[in-house]
């Protein structure tokens, strides 16, 4: 397991740049600390988590194609928040989206495509590093994903 101390800000910037190139119709708005927080993690795992969340934000957005990404250091944890303004998730379904193969609205998701595994993989990875992942969503307004990792203090 190739665990490294990953500096969040440049890593997120680099990953978002690649997503931007693939999805030029989207506007990614970044709010990241200049110094950049540090997280001890396999960088491939961190990238995978980010890509799963960004892929969802893109897939489940319609007209409003702004995606906000921010990060903060807060009380020994680092937060990474991805907010979209897409179709959202009905409140009664929100509790199931981390389940393997679960997809909201079978007909709708069949059109969009996917296996329903992304978020369960993301949650397993996050928890492997003593982190947590939470979702808040309002149908037809958008979805926000909050990821927290223990802050690897500098020095
Ligand atoms: P996969 O990621 O495996 O290709 P998927 O996107 O369907 O397929 P998950 O990423 O696990 O699977 O997400 C589960 C379900 O949660 C999705 O099918 C979708 O209904 C809902 N969902 C996830 N993220 C969002 C989001 N940002 N906005 C609206 N719905 C979402
Ligand atoms: Mg997905």
From TrEMBL:
It is found in: Cell membrane. Residues 1-153 form the Histidine kinase domain. This is Signal transduction histidine-protein kinase ArlS. It comes from Paenibacillus chibensis.
